[in-house]
Automatic annotation (TrEMBL):
Entry GO terms, CC: cytosol; ribonucleoprotein complex
Subcellular location per the Swiss-Prot or TrEMBL entry: Cytoplasm
Family per similarity comment: Belongs to the TRAFAC class translation factor GTPase superfamily. Classic translation factor GTPase family. BipA subfamily.
Leader peptide range in chain numbering: none
PROSITE patterns with a match to the protein in the record: G_TR_1 (PS00301), G_TR_2 (PS51722)
Name of the protein in question: Large ribosomal subunit assembly factor BipA
All copies of domain Tr-type G, residue ranges: 5-219
Primary enzyme class: hydrolase
Swiss-Prot/TrEMBL GO biological process terms: gene expression; response to cold; ribosomal large subunit assembly
InterPro entries: BipA, BipA_C, BipA_GTP-bd_dom, BipA_II, BipA_III, BipA_V, EFG_III/V, EFG_V-like
């Protein structure tokens, strides 16, 4: 094909909340993807409900824009370390990456991780310093920090000669020199004029488009070569089944054609492609064929998997398989067997649970599901607490009921059969007055300090901490820093087992019977217990309703009512003032529970409970329990 379309594939990579999705919004807005009268939400690529609520990207997604005669495929990648398995594969499909760095925070742990993967692939990045309108922006220092990061990661001379741009993605502005837009800001960081879809005050992201086109050579014309298409991501459609997503490395892929699939075990099987799709704007559009260099979606191969190569059957040349990082954390997903089971959820049986986990495996390659001795329980492993909790939250919203156990770290065996455990890099920023408490807690959790520096009233700490030591620490950290500290973490390596780490020191308050909690009972219990429930909450025997001030578990009766007497009616305690109950998010609940406890998840509630609901069963296990008199 002599008039081959120019195609450039780019990925936007950065840490959480650096502005990736907002930058993609600017690409789409300023390239005419949307009609003038079309209503467009912010962070349009974050289409999942949980992504919108939490303001994070969980699943990598594709879109494309046109600039002149060049088609630019854009991949919006996750910024959280738990979804790193998404990022690694995407890097193989792109020509360059836009490294987005916050003008105040500088390079963060996940920035380092994703950049390292990019440099290993031989990619020459483009640096974009974002949020230069911040009051605490330190643009020059951040650029120096990025240069240091590149050198630490052993970038070559060509990679070190990266172009640098500056911008405010939220306002749709990118410039070559930050001084160009200093005059459009007033006190408080607010602009003098209103933002529009085409940028602001005459500025837009044209410099970024120009830099991409000048920095990256369009993909070579490999259309006449034998077909090579490696699958780097999966999707699922209820009508057409599993979809494989990847870049056409060589040749032309055609709908309805017979192809060869090179499997991970070396086998080559003949299959037929049904449909071929490409991205136009945000839409997936069916086409008759797609050229080398384009990112495509193919249907018709129900068992296609990550890393497998679709080849020309007459001349198969498979590409090297993509290695998926191993899971670091596991937990047991169980059928909900509490006294309140089946009252709210639509999907409550082990068959429902198995089918839902199998469906998740179709697209979530960082996940691993294993059968257990019990037909009602499955061992589910993932890349971290957030990775697993997002799956649980999605299941809850879909109407599933389940119980899950405390997350457990997955150990490995090294040389001489030594036990190895996952270790994470943790970067914390805390007010100076709270740094002593944070350092003390991390040392107790077997953390090793790598760096410490203080400026502007905040202490920045870098630690290597075993994953075991970080389970349950986030809520403690928020309390210790009065909500002012920030903590980011990412998997670093497997290292030698670091010994025992103390778990939760407080016992819990356990409901004695089924019923409805009363203000009178809660008022008396709360003298010794931080309550997790409000008056009027339905409880059952074995349900955890609070945290004891002491180390032992305590059985209490939250349903006790005040007896009527000659002096006072039974309802005369209605004006009792109670402290607010502690409400757990799903992640906090998973962090809080102990080995003999479960989190019960139903569509409208999250409850904590003991594995064994009856007090007699728990006593047989030798747990020290105090019964309320």
């Amino acid at each position: 094909m002599s008039d081959k379309q120019k195609i450039i594939n780019i990925a936007v990579i950065a840490h959480v909340d650096a502005g990736k999705s907002t930058l993609v919004d600017a690409f789409l807005n300023q390239s005419g993807v949307f009609r003038d009268n079309e209503q467009v939400v912010d962070c349009v690529m974050d289409s999942d409900d949980i992504e919108r609520e939490r303001g994070i990207t969980i699943y990598s997604k594709n879109c494309s824009v046109m600039h002149g005669d060049v088609k630019i495929n854009i991949v919006d990648t996750p910024g959280h370390a738990d979804f790193s398995s998404e990022v690694e594969r995407i890097i193989k499909t792109v020509d360059t990456v836009i490294l987005l760095v916050d003008s105040s925070e500088g390079p963060m742990p996940q920035t380092r991780f994703v950049l390292k993967k990019s440099l290993e692939q031989g990619i020459n990045p483009i640096l974009l310093i974002n949020k230069i309108d911040k009051k605490d922006a330190r643009i020059d220092e951040v650029v120096d920090e990025v240069y240091e990061l590149f050198m630490d990661l052993e970038a070559n001379d060509q990679q070190l000669d990266f172009p640098i741009l500056y911008g405010v993605a939220r306002q749709g502005i990118v410039v070559y020199d930050p001084d160009d837009i200093r005059d459009i800001h007033v006190e408080g960081g607010e602009s003098k004029i209103k933002k529009s879809a085409k940028g602001m005050n005459g500025f837009d992201i044209t410099p970024l488009f120009e830099t991409i086109i000048n920095h990256v050579k369009p993909y070579p014309d490999y259309n006449e070569e034998p077909l090579q298409l490696q699958i780097s991501a999966l999707a699922y459609d209820d009508y057409i089944g599993r979809l494989g997503i990847g870049r056409v490395t060589k040749g032309i892929v055609k709908s309805g054609s017979t192809i060869a699939v090179a499997r991970g075990d070396g086998q080559i099987e003949q299959k037929k492609i049904n449909q071929v799709f490409v991205y136009r704007g945000l839409k997936r559009v069916a086409v008759d064929q797609a050229e080398a260099g384009d990112i495509v979606v193919v249907s018709g191969i129900p068992d296609i998997s990550i890393g497998e190569t679709i080849c020309d059957p007459s001349d198969p040349h498979p590409l090297e398989m993509i290695k998926i990082e191993e899971p670091t954390l596991s937990m047991y997903f169980m059928v909900n067997k509490s006294p309140f089971a089946g009252k709210v959820g639509k999907f409550v049986t082990s068959r429902h649970l198995r089918e839902r986990l199998d469906k998740e495996l179709e697209v979530n390659v960082g996940l691993k599901v294993e059968e257990t001795d019990s037909t009602d329980s499955f061992k589910v492993s993932g890349r971290g607490e957030l990775h697993l909790s997002i799956l649980i939250e999605n299941m809850r919203r879909e109407g599933y009921e389940l119980a899950v156990s405390k997350p457990e770290v997955i150990m490995q065996r090294g040389e001489n059969n030594k036990v190895l455990e996952p270790v994470e890099e943790v970067v914390l920023s805390v007010p100076d007055e709270y740094s002593g408490s944070v350092i003390s807690k991390l040392n107790l959790r077997k953390g090793m300090m790598q760096e410490m520096k203080s400026e502007n009233g905040f202490t920045r700490l870098e630690y290597l901490v075993p994953t075991r030591g970080l389970l349950g620490y986030r809520s403690e950290f928020i309390n210790d820093t009065r909500g002012e500290g920030t903590m980011v973490r990412r998997f670093e390596k497997f290292d030698e087992y670091m010994g025992d780490i103390a778990g939760r020191v407080n016992g819990v308050a356990i409901a004695q019977e089924e019923g409805v909690s009363t203000p009178y009972a809660i008022f008396n219990i709360s003298e010794r217990v931080q309550m997790f429930i409000e008056p009027g909450t339905k409880v059952y025997e074995g349900m955890i309703i609070g945290m004891n001030a002491r180390g032992e578990d305590m059985v209490v009766n939250p349903c006790k009512v005040k007896k009527a007497s000659n002096m006072r009616a039974a309802g005369s305690d209605e004006n009792i003032k109670l402290a607010p109950a502690r409400v757990f998010s799903l992640e906090e609940a998973l962090e809080f529970i102990d080995d003999d406890e479960l989190v019960e998840i139903v569509p409208d509630d999250i409850r904590l409970r003991k594995k064994y609901l009856k007090e007699l069963e728990r006593r047989r296990l030798g747990k020290k329990i105090k019964t309320e008199e």
